[in-house]
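Model: Ready when you are.
Researcher: Fold this.
Model:
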Amino acid sequence: MQTFAYTTPTSVADAARAMTQEDAKLMAGGQTLLQTMKLGLIAPTAVIDISGIAELKGIKVAAGKLTIGAGTTHAAVASSKEVQTAIPALAELAGHIGDRQVRNRGTIGGSLANNDPAACYTAAVLGLGATVHTNKRTIDADAFFVGLYTTALADGELITAVSFPIPEKAGWQKFKQPASRFSLVGVFVSKGPAGVRVAVTGAGAGGVFRASTLEAKLTANWSAAALAGASVSAAGLNGDLHGSAEYRAALIPVLAARAAG
């Protein structure tokens, strides 16, 4: 691994200033950054470790919203009584990300900023119509995920928190790749202030997306039965050694029905 400067800012403002360094990279839990550095895919001149910033951590419920600090670990989300009460499906999702080590190191902000096409949190954020808060602005979920490993974050911008409107109903189903525990297909469904939403991860060649045809069916009748016989086009879906595009297309309505049921 190459040499690099290592800094540990204690505030968001300090982190933002450190990010002005050329080729600097943020590290929260390090679950993605360190691996890509080891593989030689990136070579930052500076690593800014934001894991110690207290203002990036924490969970609270207020005014019909659940807000989670960007530096909050998956394990903390999964075990939170506030999350389990407000959005049980989100706690369930967080509790099955990766393995125990990943859940105790990885963070919600790091996962969203990386925007892996098979990540779980992306489906929850899009499926609940959440808002991503940064040190500069707020970004609606529909505008945040731009493409493969790409988000709306600008240079010098870091995620500080994510706020989720508390839904009337929500569910999550994941068909995982056994070794990595990433989603071959994952579907998050919700009915709430943002309407009925169905978000799919693991299947889209460009990353997480909304399944509008399934949303229409669940809007008319929120039930597993409403999705009986429903289909999703395989066009534009991911196909690899773990499953063809057609296989993933067939899984989406099945998982959506289970999540809604």
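Researcher: Now this one.
Model:
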Amino acid sequence: MYDFAYHRPKSLAEAVATLKGKAEGRPMSGGMTLIPTLKQRLAKPSDVVDLGGIKELAGIKLEGSTVVIGAMTKHGEVAASADVKKTIPALADLAGMIGDPAVRNRGTIGGSVANSDPAADYPAAVVALDATITTNTGKHKADGFFKGLFETALKDGELITSVSFPKPEKAAYMKFRNPASRYAMVGVFVAKTAGGVRVAVTGAGPAVFRVKAMEEALAKSFTSAAIKDIKIPSADLNADIHGSAEYRAHLVGVMARRAVDAANK
């Protein structure tokens, strides 16, 4: 990797101040994407600001019927949380499916959401549960936050501090995993919320997206049979050595039906 200056601030304010004015500075949460990228010399930051020492960014708390998860909270902590399991069990299930134990005990929810990896799991939960992303400068709603491949609505110097998930009436997440990486070739999070039914898909396209046709059908009848004939266009979906766009389109329907069945149990 290339040389860079390493910083480990103790507070959010210190982290923001450290990044300010450094055009090539990069924040690092769990490092699950950044460190391999640095090792392969695919990135050349002037400064890396490690957020791991900022205690105020970690932790899980309940605010009424909303689960608020600090940005530096690790996947394993979300999966094991009694509050998450009780309030939104589908979210705990999702966290438990991420990578392997090493990844779950290092990777963070804030890093996953900010990175907007096309095969990441958390973006599906954020969109399906209509979560709110809080940063050091304000708040973002789920719809409109994920802009595209590794692109979000975050501005320079804006750091995620927490993600707030409202409790749904019903929810479930199902994914078809790449057998080697365990990334989602296709993952579908289905949620019946106070504001209606939301269906979010990860892994299939450049970024997480909603399937309005399924949402409308499930709003009338929240059963897997209601969406069995809905076809997903493959034109804009991902294709690689692991699966064609057409195969991923098929998997969206399969995973969506499984998610609805799981949510109804």
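Researcher: Key takeaway?
Model: The longest strand covers residues 184-193.
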